[in-house]
Amino acid sequence: MKKGLVTITLFLLVGLLLSPCTWGRVKTIKIGINAPLTGDIPKVGEGTKYAAEMWLEDVKAAGGIEVGGKRYPVELVIEDNESKAESAVKVQTKMITEDEVLVIVGPQSSKQAVPAGGVADNYKTPMISPWSTNPDTTKDRPFVFRGCFLDPFQGPVVANFITKEFGFKKAAVLYDVASDYPKGLAEFFKKAWEDIHGPGSVVAFESFTTKDADFSSQLTNIIKSGAEVLFTPQYYNEVALIVQQAHELGFNKPIVGSDSWGSAETVNLCGKDCYGLFFSTHYAAAGATGATKEFIDRYRGKYGYVPDDVAALTWDSLHIVQKAIESCGKLTGRIGKDRKAVRDAMAKIKDFHGITGKMTFTEEGDPIKCAVIVRISEKGEFEFYKSVCP
Amino acid sequence: MEKTYSPISPDQSTGRGRIRRWFSGIPVLGWIFGALVAVVLEYYLGDALSEVLGLEKVPALFGVTLILKKPLLLPKCLMFVGLIYVIPISVVAKYLSPLTNRIAGKLIQYPYGVSAVLHLALLYAVFYIWSDVSAYRLLTLKLSLIAVMITLSLNVVNGYMGEFSCSHPGFLALGAYGASVITVLFFVKDKLFGAPLLPPAIGPYLYPVALVLGGLLASVGALVIAVPSFRTRGDYLAIISLAFMFIVKSLIENLEIVGGPRGLSSQPGWSSLLTVFIWTVLCVWIINNFVRSTLGKAANAVRDDESAADAMTVNTRRTKVVTFMFAAFWAGVAGGLYAHVIRYANPGDFGIQKLADVLAMVYLGGLNSVVGSIVGAVGMSILGEALRPLGIYKWIIIPLLLILVMIFRPTGLIAFREFDVREILKPKRRM
Amino acid sequence: MVFFLQNLVNALQWGSFYALIALGYSMVYSILMLFNFAHGDIFMVGAYIGFGVASCILALASLGANTLPNWLILVLTILISMFLNSFLGMLVERIGYRPLRDAPRASAAITGLMIGIILETGILALFGARRISFPPLIQTVTYNMGGVFVTNKKIVIVLVSVMFMLALHQFVRRTKYGMAMRAMAFDYVVVPLMGVPLNTIAAMTFGIGSALAAVAGILFGVAYPVLDPYMGIIYGWKAFVAAILGGRGSIMGATLAGFLLGFIEIFVAMIFPSTLRDLIAYSIILLILVFRPHGFFGEPYSARLRL
């Protein structure tokens, strides 16, 4: 036993000498990323992670973030929330109290962003969710911001667009009843449409459940209802199936979508069936100019596909964070005080030029920004069609 | 190191014979004292020691997370854990053992409730000080305690009564929504229900009532499963309970009044550590008494042979209804606590994924065993957190570990063992 | 009427997936009395294997410049994937189930569940987060039969699955191994004592079930060409429902229950508001079990859970 103890002690001492020296702590700015790397929507997590890593590269190349004339190195803390609310809360708490991050970017979908936003606000840590569209995420939470427009804005945009563009009077909606985003948007669309065309003008309001692959029954109902257009605010994987099945069942009228279509995967999975369809989104990849194009080209060169809206929004959110940190004067090193300073700086940001458009935060921490209507071209690219501003 | 630390099951701190003998005469009280010293040490010296060792800060979860992230820090973390936990706990436990044995011996002369309360108070102090270091620890601890409640209540049905029930996420959801609706409706101003109906100041006092009502709601839900279980059992009951789970999830998704798929947020944060701790202790205590009571034995009889039990005058129907409702009640209470810890409830959280988690906890810990459930729940919760740095490979390692446990101990780590409070609180003389 | 017929056609296609998956589930369940909770994920892996095989054949065919007809590629893909996936099934049996033969059966269910998680994570790690688009082996042709739209895919899917079901039925009824399986389903304690090799039969059961899951996976890829690593979970659990609804020891029962489940889901969405689909569909199943507590074709048996 004695011998064992001596060996262990020796081993520990040697190890202690060899292990990396962290005395003289260098002050770094830590940014937390709360992303769904596993679980239901791993692609969203991947886009978030890639955009964040690209941003980190830029910052590293610049030698860190400059605050008050001093450059601080930046470190990303990327954690997986498994697309579960419980894990999102755990991860959020861990990043705030264990890793002592200055700002958190994410979570992406509202199911995690709503509870995680509560945690962030509780511990007075600024958080920006790039993609969450649920009003509850930022409501009454001064420390929580978001990087995208909300459903109540997007719903009427699409309804007005269809009315003006096609002159249709009867619309159908197909959405996922178990998922927060599609359901919310479907309802706002319905309301907007019925405001324009009178009650009953949404002739079919059909739903399914997350992970369903067969929509034939709902589509048959929609076809029977005599709708002139189908609005389906679904994620890219479901879009492919819905559009193909609709065509197989003989539905040859326009199908319109929302920002969740804005992924390179949509066309990959859907193919020719999706050509010529419209959707509203944050930015148009094809024909983009300036910083947006630069971002898209770099991302495509690095990871091999055109970035989705999640990646673009994460990229913008990180730049908002960067700008807020830069403009908060100086970092005291006391994390609570710095967090408050960053939060105040973020709320003050005006007319931020992001790749997804210009934004200014409202009282609630929601940006005012324009939506873009995109048409999927015959080459499968997302072409800018028109822009709708609030 | 969790094992030596864990004050609940000192008997598990196995090792080679010599170590075992060295630690043999220590009562539970001694271990708790040791742990108390360790956490106090960490509370006051943790920062300084980590500074001296060159760690960035006090390592969370015994340094496992840190080691996985930066393997080279292994010796430092071991050093920290050794200096803060292992050495103080073992030294204090060992050298105070004459004293603690004497105290335990004195206490055992009173009704054992006195002794139990004293032990629990000390244990709570340990938890409180340990979790006070960081909010992350606090959250992990709270969720682990809630997991203990969930696992135990599922064990009552799956282990003690021997039905393969898949409905627990449904009960959790009912409890979570039941309790949340009450607290949000009465005490919080929010957009679903508007202004609070009662002054929020009295809320915390009525919170237990809300939890109990949530639990009762889950119990009522359990009737949906209990009644068909008269005629059918085993596998058919498994799909009835699975259908029940789907129904509850779909029902909540369609109930706009509680937010539908958007979920219900803005619950007040009343699930403090003390609240969760007290409810967990109550749950363990009552379930432990239940399974040792006539009814619990009747459930065992139903499990082993229903017809024989019936012939031996066991009222199988009553047993089934009571057991299901009892288990669902505790699941409901756990759900209510859970919703108030996370401060959000979403029907999507109470689906198949949750079911897999809970089943894994029950079967890892062991069927028919209160201690097993505690070990399973705490083990899985801590493991799930500690292995976070592995990224998605965490979801290969944890299942692999579970498969290995199942292969080598098919009934789980600690199965079919009675949890005798008196036995545990007894002083242990040196052999 | 047209509306009803259209839904009937839809339900036939949807039901055939449930039926095919439920078959594999039901076989394991009948013969070994175990829940194979990994089955949904075996189905998912089957689809991925099908994707791999089809892509390989397509690549080879384009290399050799002599283009194979698409139907031949489909047949080859199905056969090769069945072969490969049956190995996966046997492996799962060897690792997760054989060591637990004498353990409580719920423990085996847990290993199945865990193997499922490993398979999902493995596929996720292997392919990354992107969804896979299944190569279009059948060019969609839509026939309009008096207002009812039928695609050639639907016909192929229903025909192929019915074919495999009948083949399995014949195998179980006519061959020696089939007889061994039926005997095992009758009593898996005594029959091995009569000289029936338990391990062979068990491995074979898993193999055949997984081969059928591969067929289901490929047909699924043909019909719904978006594959993701988590797609098997929900089908696995629904097949679990179908297999048990069908009754123990009944291949016919599992098939019919699979179709029934598909029909319930489709027709509930047709008649009621589709938001309530799951609610009503599972309430129906619950009611069925209240009134027929032993499934459709299963015999009332006094199952003693080996806990």
Question: Could you give a short description of this structure?
Answer:
The complex is a heterotrimer of chains A (390), B (431) and C (307). Chain A has 390 residues and is an alpha/beta fold. Chain A has helices at residues 2-18, 42-61, 85-98, 110-122, 151-166, 180-197, 216-225, 236-248, 264-270, 290-303, 309-326, 335-348; strands at residues 29-35, 65-67, 70-72, 74-80, 103-105, 127-129, 144-146, 171-176, 202-208, 229-231, 255-257, 278-281, 352-354, 357-361, 367-368, 371-376, 382-388.
- Please tally the β strands of chain B and state the result: 2
N→C terminal distance of chain B: 25 Å
Tally of alpha and pi helices of chain B: 19
Largest interface: B-C, 50 and 52 residues
Q: What share of residues are in beta strands of chain A?
A: 15-25%
Strand content of chain B: under 5%
Taken from the alpha-carbon principal axes, the silhouette of chain B is globular
Secondary-structure element order of chain A, N to C:
HEHEEEHEHEEHEHEHEHEHEHHHEEEEE
By DSSP (H or I, 4+ residues per run), the number of helices of chain A equals 12
Radius of gyration of chain B: 22 Å
Order of helices and strands of chain B: HHHHHHHHHHHEHHHHEHHHH
Low-confidence runs of chain B: 1-14
Q: Regarding quaternary structure, how should these chains be classified?
A: heterotrimer
Question: What is the average per-residue confidence, as pLDDT of chain B, rounded to a whole number?
Answer: 84
Give the termini separation of chain A: 76 Å
Largest sheet of chain A: 7 strands, mixed
Number of beta strands of chain A: 17
Give the proportion of residues in helices of chain B.
Answer: 55-70%
Descriptive report:
The complex is a heterotrimer of chains A (390), B (431) and C (307). Chain A has 390 residues and is of the alpha/beta class. Helices cover 45% and strands 19% of the residues of chain A. Chain A has helices at residues 2-18, 42-61, 85-98, 110-122, 151-166, 180-197, 216-225, 236-248, 264-270, 290-303, 309-326, 335-348; strands spanning 29-35, 65-67, 70-72, 74-80, 103-105, 127-129, 144-146, 171-176, 202-208, 229-231, 255-257, 278-281, 352-354, 357-361, 367-368, 371-376, 382-388. In chain A, the strands form four sheets. A seven-stranded mixed sheet of chain A has the order 9-8-10-11-12-16-17, sandwiched between helices. Chain A has a five-stranded parallel sheet with strand order 4-1-5-6-7, with helices on both faces. In chain A, a hairpin with a 2-residue loop joins strand 13 (352-354) and strand 14 (357-361). The radius of gyration of chain A is 23 Å and the shape is globular. Chain B has helices at residues 2-5, 17-22, 28-53, 64-69, 74-95, 97-107, 112-132, 135-160, 168-187, 203-226, 235-254, 273-292, 294-304, 306-311, 316-342, 352-365, 370-386, 394-408, 421-425; strands spanning 264-265, 344-345. Chain B has a two-stranded antiparallel sheet with strand order 1-2. The longest helix of chain B has 27 residues, at 316-342. Chain B is globular, with a radius of gyration of 22 Å. Residues 1-14 of chain B have low confidence and may be disordered. Chain C is mainly alpha-helical and 307 residues long. Chain C has helices spanning 2-32, 39-64, 70-97, 105-127, 152-174, 176-186, 198-223, 231-246, 251-271, 277-291; strands at residues 132-133, 142-145, 148-151, 226-227. In chain C, helix 2 packs parallel to helix 4 (105-127) and helix 5 packs across helix 6 (176-186). The longest helix of chain C is centred in the first third of the chain and has 31 residues, at 2-32. The radius of gyration of chain C is 19 Å and the shape is globular. Chain C starts with a helix and ends in a 16-residue tail after the last helix. Mean pLDDT of chain C is 85; it is low at 301-307. Classes of the chains: A alpha/beta (390), B mainly alpha (431), C mainly alpha (307). The interface between B and C is large, with 50 and 52 residues.
